[in-house]
């Protein structure tokens, strides 16, 4: 085994023998399929919380519908994200120069903004939304397992410092236009925060069973609309800035996305525990804009409402292997594809013509961020990475 | 492209249930066949039975989630080994985990020879003191009997690193195992 020193061969044989001795009485198979599936479910929820901070509506959809329908307590828990610093793998990794511009992302305490500048945050966060003069950032509360801390930070030059802090049940959702965030506080209030103001739109909501899924409007000072899904009832309602609540679609369904002006929304209808079909509705008339299909699940709508980001409705496991951009006639416009060893973590429209996605490679244990430009026919371009980081410990997180 | 929703839904439901059934069946077969062996490797990586089960459960859960992506069933073990090593490295990094286990029990050993001249225990002490990545290298090389190239592939490191880690591990054994317990020393030499 070793040709350099004969003595080494002896030590190698000793190690082999000792290892054999140590484990030769271990013949057990202590784990059952149910136990493994249970752990898999918890990993999946953690991944959803970790990776898709920018597309929480999507993450919520990835949570098995059956769990919600079955009333499992797990379904009511927020995604538990444990961002473990991994100094050797990630902290010292710097993105290559001139990459990552225009795609906001978090890397440790740094928020890389869409304009290419960098903000230093007071601590590492799991997600952040850049509101211009303020940044709303969130992290898991290490002292309360089911609690998210939402910090509102004031931007001063290249730094952002604490202003206000909220305790939330789930991470905040960013509005389609990126101008405000919304979240459900631990006391059941539907809280919105924008560049220079805040407003509670509703109170007394079931805190772990109400999921904001889409938000439209500039801010909630004058006009906004937040779509939330009431998980136990499996239906979505629209809540306006004055607190008015309006049902969105009949039956068991949920809104998954909305155009920036709120004129169209994607709705997913649950056929049974394993099947979901999608359609797009005109919110003013209730008319069907894109007829229902069970071939795709619509996870996002471009801000102008002209394109859909769709995945296989049976997607399971780490994440979809492919994300498809469709037009309103369900023609394929472009795709973000992966190899067998890869999975797509997060994905969303960056603007009318650009899709951004994070891709994890199980083989090389790396992450990369890609964009897809619809105007140029959809070539996928890597804008960041690949950077080392495990599936639960990505070197960067998509921000808004 | 647009299918009748009813037909599509029915087909989708059957397809999903069928796919999950197949996955569970295949996975259960794999579990029954390979779990004891994987547990042994996990034990050698961690040196602790509880931690071994913990990383094995996490690793198998990740395998379960990625089952449809693991196209080459022959390489499944290598895939799980890689996850176990990563899990163990992560576990090691988490101070709270270390504390949790440090106060739990005295490190256990599934097997003790009735006759042990002490060399095995001394060698094991050195191995358990190696950093997790170095330990993974020696476990894969000298227990799993993987080649240097295979070990490098599983760990995502170079063959040169595998070689140097093995050399360092052996140097540590030579240095830290008491001289009278070195291989080749006769009882009368002590």
Blueprint (SSEs and pairs):
The complex is a heterodimer of chains A (400) and B (190).
Chain A: H1 6-23, H2 33-51, H3 56-62, H4 65-69, H5 87-91, E1 105-107, E2 110-112, E3 118-120, E4 127-130, E5 134-140, E6 148-156, E7 159-168, E8 173-174, E9 180-184, E10 190-194, E11 197-202, E12 210-219, E13 223-230, E14 235-240, E15 245-247, E16 253-258, E17 264-272, E18 275-282, E19 288-293, E20 297-301, E21 307-311, E22 322-327, E23 332-337, E24 342-351, E25 354-361, E26 366-373, E27 380-388, E28 397-398
Chain B: H1 5-46, H2 49-65, H3 76-93, H4 95-102, H5 119-129, H6 132-143, H7 148-155, H8 159-176
Helix pairs in contact in B: 1-2, 1-3, 1-6, 2-3, 5-8, 6-7, 6-8, 7-8
Q: Your description of this structure?
A:
The complex is a heterodimer of chains A (400) and B (190). Chain A has 400 residues and is mainly beta. Chain A has helices at 6-23, 33-51, 56-62, 65-69, 87-91; strands at 105-107, 110-112, 118-120, 127-130, 134-140, 148-156, 159-168, 173-174, 180-184, 190-194, 197-202, 210-219, 223-230, 235-240, 245-247, 253-258, 264-272, 275-282, 288-293, 297-301, 307-311, 322-327, 332-337, 342-351, 354-361, 366-373, 380-388, 397-398. Chain A has a single domain, classed as Methylamine Dehydrogenase, Chain H. Chain A has 5 helices and 28 strands. In chain A, the strands form 7 sheets. Chain A has a 4-stranded antiparallel beta sheet, with no helix packed on it. Chain A is globular, with a radius of gyration of 22 Å. The N and C termini of chain A lie far apart (54 Å). Mean pLDDT of chain A is 79; it is low at 49-101. Chain B has helices at residues 5-46, 49-65, 76-93, 95-102, 119-129, 132-143, 148-155, 159-176. In chain B, helix 5 packs across helix 8 (159-176). The longest helix of chain B has 42 residues, at 5-46. With 190 residues, chain B is mainly alpha-helical. Residues 1-15 and 93-115 of chain B have low confidence and may be disordered. Classes of the chains: A mainly beta (400), B mainly alpha (190). Chains A and B meet through helix 1, helix 2 and strand 19 of A and helix 1, helix 2, helix 3, helix 5 and helix 6 of B.
């Amino acid at each position: 085994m070793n040709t350099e020193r004969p003595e080494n061969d002896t030590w190698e044989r000793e190690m082999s023998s000792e290892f054999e001795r140590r484990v030769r009485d271990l013949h057990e198979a202590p784990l059952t399929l149910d136990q493994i599936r249970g752990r898999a479910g918890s990993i999946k929820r953690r991944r959803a919380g970790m990776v898709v901070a920018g597309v929480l509506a999507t993450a919520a959809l990835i949570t098995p519908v059956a769990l919600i329908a079955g009333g499992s307590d797990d379904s009511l828990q927020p995604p538990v994200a444990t961002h473990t610093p991994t100094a050797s793998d990630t902290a010292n990794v710097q993105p290559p120069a001139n990459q990552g511009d225009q795609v906001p992302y978090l890397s440790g305490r740094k928020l890389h903004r869409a304009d290419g500048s960098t903000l230093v945050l007071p601590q590492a966060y799991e997600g952040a939304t850049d509101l211009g003069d303020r940044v709303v950032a969130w992290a898991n509360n290490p002292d309360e397992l089911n609690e998210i801390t939402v910090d509102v930070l004031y931007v001063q030059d290249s730094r952002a410092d604490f202003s206000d802090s909220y305790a939330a049940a789930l991470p905040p959702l960013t509005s389609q236009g990126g101008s405000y965030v919304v979240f459900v506080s631990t006391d059941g209030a539907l809280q919105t925060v924008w560049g220079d103001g805040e407003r509670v739109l509703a109170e007394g909501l079931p805190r772990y069973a109400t999921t904001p899924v889409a938000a439209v409007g500039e801010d909630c000072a004058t006009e906004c609309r937040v779509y939330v899904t009431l998980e136990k009832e499996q239906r979505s309602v629209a809540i306006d800035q004055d607190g008015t609540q309006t049902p969105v679609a009949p039956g068991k369904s949920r809104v998954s996305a909305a155009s920036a002006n709120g004129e169209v929304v994607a709705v997913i209808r649950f056929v049974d525990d394993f099947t979901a079909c999608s359609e797009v509705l005109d919110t003013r008339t209730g008319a069907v804009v894109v007829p229902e299909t069970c071939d795709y699940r619509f996870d996002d709508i471009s801000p102008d409402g002209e394109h859909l980001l769709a995945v296989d409705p049976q997607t399971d496991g780490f994440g979809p292997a492919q994300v498809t951009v469709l037009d309103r006639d369900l023609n394929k416009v472009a795709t973000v594809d992966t190899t067998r060893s890869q999975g797509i973590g997060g994905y969303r429209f960056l603007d009318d013509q650009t899709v951004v996605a994070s891709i994890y490679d199980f083989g090389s244990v790396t992450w990369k961020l890609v964009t897809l430009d619809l105007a140029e026919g959809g070539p996928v371009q890597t804008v960041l990475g690949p950077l080392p980081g495990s599936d639960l410990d990505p070197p960067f997180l998509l921000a808004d | 492209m647009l299918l009748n929703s009813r037909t599509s839904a029915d087909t989708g439901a059957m397809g999903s249930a069928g796919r999950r059934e197949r996955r569970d069946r295949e996975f259960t077969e794999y579990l029954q066949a390979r779990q004891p062996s994987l547990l042994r490797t996990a034990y050698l990586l961690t040196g602790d039975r509880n931690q071994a089960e913990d990383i094995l459960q996490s690793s198998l859960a990740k395998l379960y989630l990625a089952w449809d992506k693991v196209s080459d069933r022959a390489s499944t073990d290598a895939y799980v080994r890689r996850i176990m090593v990563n899990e163990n490295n992560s576990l090691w990094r988490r101070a709270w985990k270390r504390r949790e286990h440090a106060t739990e029990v005295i490190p256990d050993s599934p097997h003790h020879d009735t006759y042990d001249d002490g060399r095995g225990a001394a060698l094991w002490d050195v191995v358990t003191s190696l950093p997790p990545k170095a330990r993974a290298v020696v476990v894969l090389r000298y227990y799993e009997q993987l080649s240097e190239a295979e070990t490098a592939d599983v760990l995502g490191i170079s063959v040169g690193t595998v070689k140097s880690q093995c050399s360092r591990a052996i140097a540590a054994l030579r240095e830290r195992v008491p001289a009278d317990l070195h291989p080749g020393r006769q009882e009368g030499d002590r």
